[in-house]
Amino acid sequence: MFYTKGKAFFILVVSIVFSSCGKKAQFPIPSAGVYSNGLIVAYDAQTTEWSGIYRKKDCWIYIVGKWDGDKMNTVSFHPTKKIDRTFGVLEITNKDKLHLQFEKEHPFCDFGEGYSPTNGKSFELKSPRDWIRLRTVKADTSYLYEDHHIKSPKLVVLPKHSVLKVINKGIHWDKVQYETTDSLRTGFVQVVDLIRFPG
C-alpha cells in the first residue's frame, strides 16, 4: 500500500516539474516612463508591444517590437538618414533599468564616457508614466479639427512629432486633447496621421 502511494506521489511531483518547465519563463517587465539620458519607453500591456525613442542632438533611436523574454531587438536611425541603420539589443536588467547595445559604433550618437558597442549603455528609470493613451503626429503636417469630418473648421495646425492624448478612439478619427503654450484644446485628428507615442 505504501509503495502504491509512494509511486503516486512520485508521479505527481514529476508531473508538476514537467508542467512548470513547459511554461514560458516569466521575466520582469520594465516600467514605462522616462529613463536617464533622454530615453522614453512606452508599453501596452494588452498587446505586449513596446515603443520608445531616445533623442539627443542628432541621435534618434527608435525602439519597437513585442516584449518576449528579457531582450528585444531594436533598430536605430536618424529620421532624415534612414539608409544608415544601426541594429542593437535592448536588455532588461530589472524593472527600473534597461541596457542598450549596438552591433557597431553608432554613427549619430554620443552616449558619453564609458560607452562602446561592446559595453553598451544602461538607463535608469527617472519617472514612471502611463503613455498608453498618447499619440505622436507622424504626418509632416496634421490638423486638429472641430468635428470628425474633413470639412470641419481647423482649430490648430499640428506639426510633425506633436504629442496628443486620446480621449475617445475611433476608426478614422480620434478625439484628442492637445496642449498648446497657453491652452488645452480638444478636437479631432485623423487616425492615419498618428502613431503610438513616442513614435
Shape: elongated
SSE string, helices as H and strands as E: HEEEEEEEEEEEEEEE
Report the major sheet: 8 strands, antiparallel, barrel
The strand order across the widest sheet is 1-2-3-4-5-6-7-8
Structural class: mainly beta
Query: Tally the helices: what do you get?
Result: 1
**How many distinct beta strands?**
15
What does it look like?
This protein has one helix at 2-22, and strands spanning 33-35, 39-44, 49-56, 59-66, 71-78, 81-94, 97-102, 121-128, 134-137, 141-145, 154-159, 163-168, 173-179, 184-190, 194-196. The protein has 199 residues and is mostly beta strands. The protein folds into two domains: 33-128; 134-196, SH3 type barrels (Roll), CATH 2.30.30.40. The protein is elongated, with a radius of gyration of 23 Å. 22% of the residues are buried. Residues 8-25 have low confidence and may be disordered.
